[in-house]
Amino acid sequence: MSDTTANSAGQKQTHGFQAEVKQLLQLMIHSLYSNKEIFLRELVSNASDAADKLRFMALSDSSLYGDDGDLRVRISLDETARTLTIIDNGVGMSEQDVISHLGTIAKSGTKEFFSQLSGDQSKDSNLIGQFGVGFYSAFIVADKVTVRTRKAGAAANEAIEWESAGEGDYSITPITKDSRGTEIVLHLREGEDEFLSRWTVEKIVTKYSDHISIPVEFWQEEQPESEGEDGEKVAAVPGHWQAVNKATALWTRDKSELTDKEYNEFYKHISHDWNDPLSWSHNKVEGKSNYTSLLYVPKKAPFDMWNRDAQHGLKLYVQRVFIMDDAEQFMPSYLRFMKGVLDSSDLPLNVSREILQDTKVTQSLRKGCTSRTLKMLEKLSKDSEKYQAFWDEFGQVLKEGPAEDMANKEQIAALLRFSSTHTDDTVQSVSLADYISRMKEGQDEIYYIVADSFAAAKNSPHLEVLRKKGLEVLLLSDRIDEWLVQHLTDFNDKKLRSVAKGGLDLSKLDDEDTKKAQQETEQAFASVIARFKTALGSQVKDVKVSHRLTDSPACVVTDEHDMSTQMIKLMESAGQKVPEVKPIFEINAEHNLVKHIADEQDEQRFKEWSEVLLDQALLAEKGSLKDPASFVNRLNHLLLSLAK
Ligand SMILES: Nc1ncnc2c1ncn2[C@@H]1O[C@H](COP(=O)(O)OP(=O)(O)OP(=O)(O)O)[C@@H](O)[C@H]1O
């Protein structure tokens, strides 16, 4: 069966696996055992990728095909030797390729993956699935794997044999291999005889790899001449390789003839994800633009979603010829979690990443894919359970949308979900439309607060009067939120309004009696306010009677057009110089502590109280003080004087 011979000139060398590979192999063998048949999916998937890569290289050098242009994968079983062999005539590997691909893990997210392992087998098996199992899954069922490979364009005697028992090391030997491509021989472990059964293996291949676009073939034994039902002679059929799959690119097939299972398996093939996708959208566009897109929303975020250098994007084909993986030009960054295939008839076959950067075709494809994705998410949002699962994984990325994509701002805003005082729950499930539907009569703005944490937002003194009036407030505490509200200033003609800023005016919602009472308090308190202003001097921009507090004695707010506290913190943490922003100090005239201070006749003591009150308010707002020691000293001094 094998077309290889040992290369007498070559020396066998032994190499150690990278430490992570050893760990991954151990984990895989133990955690994925109950799902062991997936090794076939992984190896057939790699063979199909190898065919795609060869086709791509042959676009510029068709001699790479040699006399072997029909790309395919073959699977053969040998009961006596107890081996299962997968043979492709794809791109193959050089010695260097073999060492770097089959001895190390060169993937972004590797560190995060290993740091998240828990030792719990079922949890870890899911993590491995998400991370991608790939070639090493062969060791779930094999106690020895032999790979023989010859790279396209290399001579027969430049082939390589890689062999390992999946423990600490592997060997590499130069060999002679007559044909191009890769042959992977799995020496099955004791007890894995089911993978020697043609029927079983064929069934698994059909289950997982029906969508593979090249033929997956099994050997069909010779059929001797026989007699038909009516005694007629049926000619002998010689032994031949026969495909068990449809071998057409799945996205070129008609939607109506594709099953969910096929879509799911295809997703796993292109994404290297373990889970089924959450949803997909398959579209053929004809007319001004001609392309087919098959876009998937994954269930789980990849390990490297927050890594700026991580690769993402669609698999690009031009007229069914694979061109590149991770073509990021067709999706905006805030949709970088999307997976899928784009097959364009308008791009040239020799298109490169550089050319893609700024062609009209790219722009129109990007527009099409973006709009398709947003529609898909909108549809998904009708199923609140599924959409919540999506939001919990990818919501933070989608929140980058309004800043990045002005044209689709309103549509993206409709997809956003927040925590709010309606539920007071950390789960972000409130849409802006939900919020608007609950707005009180006379309310024409969407209220929000941005804080460092959910607890800080939820317990902020700024919410006191809004809670009392039954006005809902969005509780924002993700890192991206301050950035989001800078760009998302309104939705459905309703302005978004920070409750921590000076411009908040709830008087429209108050009845005449309340307004009158407020005016009276302001007048009665005018002299106390003047004392506060003198006592605090340049520490504050202004001092006012507050109408937003019920339980707290005081709070600070930023002037409507000043930079918000949260924005200042973000800029400071990014090492940027921020101009000093003085707070407006608001006093709750009804609070007993404030009444006590107002009665204080000693101006020195009044100043101390004012400063303690201001520091308290700053602490509640920012979570820290510039000079905490002085605050503690002043507070202790006052406490002592009260204790006397
Ligand atoms: N049959 C093959 N022909 C040519 N190259 C191959 C073949 N099988 C594996 N490789 C090379 O080895 C690399 C590693 O394969 P492996 O399956 O472990 O990872 P992957 O396919 O890149 O991603 P994943 O681990 O998510 O499946 C591949 O990217 C490819 O370069």
From TrEMBL:
Segments of this protein annotated with the region A: 1-353
Span of domain Histidine kinase/HSP90-like ATPase: 35-192
PROSITE patterns: HSP90
Ranges where the record places region B: 354-569
One GO CC annotation: cytoplasm
Pfam families tied to this protein: HATPase_c_3, HSP90
Keywords of the record: ATP-binding, Chaperone, Cytoplasm, Nucleotide-binding, Stress response
Binding-site residues for ATP, renumbered to this chain: 42, 46, 88, 93, 107-109, 130-135, 182, 353
Keyword Chaperone belongs to the record: yes
Compartments where found: Cytoplasm
Entry-linked SMART domains: HATPase_c
SUPFAM superfamilies per the UniProt record, alphabetical: ATPase domain of HSP90 chaperone/DNA topoisomerase II/histidine kinase, HSP90 C-terminal domain, Ribosomal protein S5 domain 2-like
One example GO MF annotation: ATP binding
Segments for region (C): 570-644
Task performed by this protein: Molecular chaperone. Has ATPase activity.
The family this protein is said to belong to: Belongs to the heat shock protein 90 family.
Assembly mode: Homodimer.
Name listed for the protein in its UniProt record: Chaperone protein HtpG
Organism: Rheinheimera salexigens
Lineage: Bacteria, Pseudomonadati, Pseudomonadota, Gammaproteobacteria, Chromatiales
Primary gene name: htpG
